[in-house]
From TrEMBL:
Protein name, entry field: Histidine--tRNA ligase
Binding positions for L-histidine per the UniProt entry: E81, G82, T83, R112, Q126, E130, R257, Y261, Y262
Ranges for domain Aminoacyl-transfer RNA synthetases class-II family profile: 23-322
The reaction(s) this protein catalyses: tRNA(His) + L-histidine + ATP = L-histidyl-tRNA(His) + AMP + diphosphate + H(+)
Uppermost EC category: ligase
GO CC field: cytoplasm
Localization annotation: Cytoplasm
Keywords: Aminoacyl-tRNA synthetase, ATP-binding, Cytoplasm, Ligase, Nucleotide-binding, Protein biosynthesis
Pfam families, alphabetized: HGTP_anticodon, tRNA-synt_His
Length: 423
């Protein structure tokens, strides 16, 4: 029995890989247009970063992290999300010195030890952006618009923005008191998990998926009615910019997101008709995170989105994936005696900028043609005694089946001429 991939992981096979770089290229294209620069952080960090960054009481930190000691017993964790590492890199590299506002994006694997189910993996891929250094509501709106544009450019339809404000350090303290008071006589009705949440961070109770807990929270005091004037104004401005750009959004005062670092704006992009786990991107403002990770007080805002879910939704919506590029020329030898010439020609064609391949075995002409068909080669170049005596090959258009003799050094010219090839 051969060894299989670990539970919750998957191979991205050659048939699917083009989908990935199609999406990644689109992400880079749109975000570069918005002025973001790519950053790549390590796959693992010191565990402390996530405990301090994401919050001790969050589901991610309490039960989903892959944490392990290194050989000197320092605790490491495979990154479960991208924002804390980006902020760590921002601080460590003094990025604030180069410019007041730093705009970064990342694409990479994240790791969470979740129960693998419908589109959820233990190693999954996310892309995200972070704007660090501005508290302007315009930045919140830019982040939402950049995310939307990526989805639109990829052809995703029926997306909706769900938005909320979760307040700031000042107003949230009072609000949490209110919430605690509200929940204090309902503790018996909460699930065990939520009783713990009640103690550590009652906001988390809004995240509970259990119907009984959700029902209780329906009548809970809402953060949006308890915002301080600054948070209230910020939220108003975000909404008015969204109106201005005619971006439809839906207000959800119960949206708190699963991470502790959010302040003010929190949002999700949801795909209508995707069922319960319909969020395909989520983000918000994190005005205290930089300070919590040891920097000067510096506001920030960003979002993250899962690429696996994105592909799932694109498949559901039957979006046409671009066809992967095929081999331009497959060289076919009439007999094994031509193999040295064929090998030299192969490299010559590749050096000219075309893609080329051949079958190194000495199988029959028929079997070589079968391979050419299977890999979708646009042309075959057939080499036999007759052709070689005249320094020529027989070039065959695999679609029209037309063929003609072409001089060895004119293959490239011939293909560029009428082939319609993308070279
Ligand atoms: Zn506030
Ligand atoms: Zn609960």
């Amino acid at each position: 029995m051969f060894i299989q991939v670990p539970k919750g992981t998957q191979d991205i096979l050659p048939d699917d890989a083009p989908k990935w770089y199609y999406i990644e290229n689109k992400i880079r294209e749109v975000l570069t247009k918005y002025g973001y620069q790519e950053i790549r952080t390590p796959a693992f960090e010191y565990t402390e970063l996530f405990i301090r960054g994401i919050g001790e009481s969050t589901d991610i930190v309490t039960k989903e992290m892959f944490t392990f000691p290194d050989r000197k017993e320092r605790s490491l964790t495979l990154r479960p999300e991208g924002t804390a590492p980006v902020v760590r890199a921002y601080l460590e590299n003094n990025m604030d010195r180069a410019s007041k506002v730093v705009k970064l994006f990342y694409i990479g694997s994240m790791f969470r030890c979740e129960k693998p189910q419908g589109g959820r993996f233990r190693q999954f891929n996310q892309f995200g952006i972070e704007v660090i250094g501005t508290k302007s509501p315009e930045a919140d709106v830019e982040v939402i618009m950049a995310a939307l544009e990526i989805y639109e450019k990829l052809g995703l339809k029926n997306l909706e923005i769900v938005i909320n404000s979760v307040g700031c350090k000042k107003c949230r303290v009072d609000y949490i008191q209110k919430l605690k008071k509200f929940l204090s006589n309902k503790k018996d009705l909460l699930c065990l998990e939520c009783v713990k949440r009640y103690e550590k961070n009652p906001l988390r109770v809004f995240d509970c998926k259990k119907d009984s807990c959700q029902k209780i929270m329906e009548t809970a005091p809402m953060i949006t009615e308890n915002l301080c004037p600054e948070c209230k104004l910020h939220f108003e401005e975000v909404k008015s910019h969204l109106d201005d750009f005619k971006i439809k959004y839906h207000l959800d005062p119960k949206l708190v997101r699963g991470l502790d670092y959010y302040t003010k704006t929190a949002f999700e992009i949801v795909g209508k008709g995707l069922g319960a786990q319909n969020a395909i991107a989520g983000g918000g403002r994190y005005d205290d995170l930089v300070e919590e990770l040891g920097g000067k007080p510096t506001p920030g805002v960003g979002f993250a989105a899962g690429i696996e879910r994105m592909i799932m939704v694109m498949n559901q919506q039957k979006i046409n994936w671009p066809k992967p590029k095929c081999i331009d020329i497959f060289i076919v030898k009439v007999s094994a005696e031509n193999k040295d010439t064929a090998f030299r020609l192969l490299q010559k064609i590749r050096n000219s900028g075309l893609s080329a391949d051949l079958d190194y075995s000495n199988d029959s002409l028929k079997s070589q043609m079968r391979i050419a068909n299977k890999i979708g080669a646009r042309y075959t170049a057939i080499i036999g005694e007759e052709e070689l005596s005249k320094d020529m090959v027989t070039l065959r258009n695999m679609q029209t089946k037309e063929q003609k003799k072409v001089k060895l050094d004119e293959i490239e010219k011939e293909l560029k001429k009428g082939s319609g090839l993308n070279i």
